[in-house]
Amino acid sequence: MAKTVPSGRPNHLLRNLNSKIASIPMILIAVVIFLGGTLWTVVYSFTNSRLLPRFNFVGLDQYERLWASSRWMISIQNLAVYGILSLIFSLVIGFVLAALMDQKIRFENTFRTIFLYPFALSFIVTGLVWQWVLNPEFGIQGIVRSLGWESFAFDPLYNPDIVIYGILIAALWQGTGLVMCLMLAGLRGIDEDIWKAARVDGIPMWRTYIFVVIPMMRPVFITTLVLIASGIVKVYDLVVAQTSGGPGNASEVPAKYVYDYMFQAQNLGQGFAASTMMLLTIAIIIIPWAYLEFGGRKRG
Questions:
Q1: Where are the transmembrane segments (predicted)?
Q2: What is the 3-state secondary structure (H, E, C) of the chain?
Q3: Is-contact 111 154, C-beta < 8 A?
Q4: Residue 105 φ/ψ region, left for φ over 0, alpha for ψ in the -120 to 50 degree band, beta for the rest
Q5: How far apart are CA 212 and CA 14, in angstroms?
Q6: Chain-centre distance of CA 214, in angstroms?
Q7: What is the pLDDT of residues 32-59, one digit of tens each?
Q8: Selection from 159, 154, 122 nearest residue 251 by Cα
Q9: pLDDT band per the 50, 70, 90 thresholds, residue 233
Q10: Which of 93, 96, 102, 223 sits in a 20 to 30 Å window from 111, CA-based?
Q11: Cβ count within 10 A of residue 251
Q12: Regarding predicted confidence, which is higher, 65 or 195?
């Protein structure tokens, strides 16, 4: 009777056993805190909880009140404008700066440090700095008028129609340096032979960037987009530091709406409903992208 010869390979479940054991606390924390907290928030968004959570279901009343609120609609419009422009300008400015840095310029380390330094500051500090810079009396407008241009006007933080653009300026100043560094790392990973071949073929540099380099940097762009998008959805500090949501509610954003209703208006149910809508918006964007990105790669 032939004996079964052991394969010599460890059981699949026992591979990297120490690593799996070490990851158990992290997995439990992620499941209990993140997933559990998310489900708890969604469930209580269907209640009339006020100061304290109450398990008293009211159906979709909180969501009906939410979408009937002009303040919430203003916050959604502001987030859309801020998000679209932030994505476009962050990527364009960051990539252009990275392309310039990639030309082996002198004092590259110094310039890279200068551009990246704002990212080391907190959003509160950035907001306060730009609140002063955009102040009509002491900032840019005041300086230009003191030079003789009395008709010059630049006070976006005090104009309800353009206040969101003043917040966008501060956000770009702080975050563009990080985008530049990510793009520069991607450019430095491009094989030098590609540039040599493009020069030999007489292809203009801008065409090489658009049709060759940028498609090769697709993973870098995806990572950058995820980082920028996460910052857009949770934007709060800049708004509070610069305008506190004003003038009126002109610079309101969803994160501030949630905070105000949960901790100031003491209306947990309404805050939970707004949080759930923010989560749903992220899921609508992330799930199709994840399916196309990872599902398509797996099928390939």
A1: 21-46, 79-101, 113-133, 162-187, 208-233, 272-292
A2: CCCCCCCCCCCHHHCCHHHHHHHHHHHHHHHHHHHHHHHHHHHHCCECCCCCCCCCECCCHHHHHHHHCHHHHHHHHHHHHHHHHHHHHHHHHHHHHHHHHCCCCCCHHHHHHHHHHHHHCCHHHHHHHHHHHCCCCCCHHHHHHHCCCCCCCCCHHHCCCCHHHHHHHHHHHHHHHHHHHHHHHHHHCCCHHHHHHHHHCCCCHHHHHHHHHHHHCHHHHHHHHHHHHHHHHCCCHHHHHHCCCCCCCCCCCHHHHHHHHHHHCCCHHHHHHHHHHHHHHHHHHHHHHHHHHHHHHHHC
A3: no
A4: beta
A5: 44
A6: 21
A7: 888 888 899 999 999 999 888 888 899 9
A8: 159
A9: confident
A10: 223
A11: 27
A12: 65
Tell me the CATH architecture of domain 69-266: Orthogonal Bundle (1.10)
Q: Is the Cβ–Cβ distance between 49 and 272 less than 8 Å?
A: yes
Q: Cα 110 from chain centroid? A: 26
The C-alpha atoms of residue 160 and residue 195 are separated, in whole angstroms, by 48
- Angle, helices 108-116 vs 163-188, to 10°: value is 140
Residue extents of the structural domains in the chain? 69-266
Where do we find the tokens 């199709």?
A: 288
Q: Token digits for 285?
A: 């964007």
Residue 163's pLDDT is 95
Cis peptide leading into residue 247 (ω within 30°): yes
With contact defined as beta carbons under 8 Å apart, do 102 and 188 qualify?
A: yes
Are 245 and 252 in contact by the 8 Å Cβ rule? The answer is yes
- Residue 251's closest CA among 139, 168, 137? 168
Are 224 and 91 within 8 A, CB to CB? yes
What are the tokens at 261?
């209703």
What is d(CA 73, CA 79) in angstroms, rounded to the nearest whole number? 10
